[in-house]
Design goal:
Blueprint: E1 2-5, H1 11-19, E2 23-26, H2 31-38, E3 43-46, H3 54-60, E4 67-70, H4 80-85, E5 89-92, H5 98-114, H6 116-124, E6 143-147, H7 151-162, E7 166-170, H8 178-182, E8 185-186, H9 189-195, E9 198-201, H10 214-219, E10 224-228, H11 237-246, E11 249-254, H12 265-268, E12 273-275, H13 284-299
Bound molecules: D-malate.
D-malate is lined by residues 47-48, 72-74, 97, 278, 280-281.
């Protein structure tokens, strides 16, 4: 098969695909050129930079392109229903990056608790602001509210329990026996918003109102910390910024943004924001596991 890789992929997995007799081409295409280019490939593998929408599908449909694979969890950068209606299957690698994303959420929690991101910046500027950054807080004993209790949420829970946090989670689906197994409890969303000292989001972005917005922030504890390693669309950035400025939200750890690359500089450079450029799955381990999942998917096509 001819396989197009637009946003990079683990080199070992690419070598494996070549060994299996496939031709792998690494090339990024601008949105207006992508659809036509796809006609020459059986499979396209994308990460988050490439978007495959109606325009690209219209240009590629009826060609040899049969499969779009998202090397990651979310398929929100693909018009899945339209692709499938036009005979193009959409697949993803939902398991491979959970540990890495959960670890980044944990890292942002520590960063918010001790202002690691902001304090580190002042050190780079040659300053020694020990007094300013000596009013941190411990994670131990705090209540973590996890919204979306799938693979990533569960891994985050296990780590948070390890540092002595209490964990509550909201999800429409309740995994039988997991409360006893992980020592956490499920809660209604309203209760979780009221009880959590730190809130971490692990759901896909849903159309309509973002989960974190003025109205939901108002229900949260004063001084709450918000971590988002899921999708930028889950947070209204303007409302979060206002809440950070007023102190209602003490700090936020953000890996994902409404637009990427992030556009809202007032938010991502805010002194109480720990920000990273969508690197949740950006570890060698996750990329190797994603590569192995991609090889498995392609071997079954
Ligand atoms: C995912 O959905 O797995 C991530 O957002 C992957 C990424 O693009 O880095």
């Amino acid at each position: 098969m001819r396989i197009l890789v637009t946003d990079g992929m683990d080199k070992g997995a690419q070598a494996k695909l070549a060994e299996m007799g496939h031709e792998v081409v690494n090339q990024f295409f601008e949105p207006d050129e992508l659809g036509k280019a796809l006609r020459d490939f059986d499979v396209v593998i994308i990460r988050s930079k490439t978007k495959i929408r109606k325009q690209q599908i219209d240009e590629a449909k009826g060609s040899k392109l049969k499969t779009i694979i998202r090397a990651g969890v979310g398929v929100d950068n693909i018009d899945v229903a339209y692709a499938e209606e036009n005979g193009i299957a959409v697949k993803n690698t939902p398991r491979a990056s959970s540990q890495s994303v959960a670890e980044l959420a944990m890292a942002h929690m520590f960063s918010c608790a001790r202002s690691i991101s902001a304090a580190g910046q002042t050190m780079r500027e040659g300053k020694w602001e020990k007094k300013t950054y000596s009013a941190g807080f411990e994670l131990c004993g705090k209540t973590l509210g996890i919204i979306g209790f799938g693979r990533i949420g569960q891994k985050l829970c296990a780590m948070a329990k390890g540092v002595g946090m209490d964990v509550i989670a909201y999800d429409v689906y309740h995994v039988p026996g997991i409360e006893q197994q992980l020592g956490m409890r499920y809660a209604e969303l309203e209760d979780l918003l009221k009880e959590a000292d730190i809130l971490s989001l692990h759901t896909p972005a849903i159309d309509g109102k973002p989960l974190v917005r003025e109205e939901t922030i108002a229900k949260m504890k004063d001084g709450v910390v918000i971590i988002n390693t899921s999708r930028g669309g889950n947070v209204c950035e303007e409302d979060l910024l206002k809440a950070l400025d007023s102190g209602k939200v003490r700090a936020a750890g953000l890996d994902v943004f409404a637009e990427e690359p992030a556009q809202n500089a007032a938010l991502y450079t805010h002194p109480h924001v720990s920000s990273t450029p969508h690197i949740g799955a950006g570890t060698n381990e996750a990329q190797a596991r994603i590569g192995a999942e991609l090889v498995e998917i392609i071997s079954k096509l």
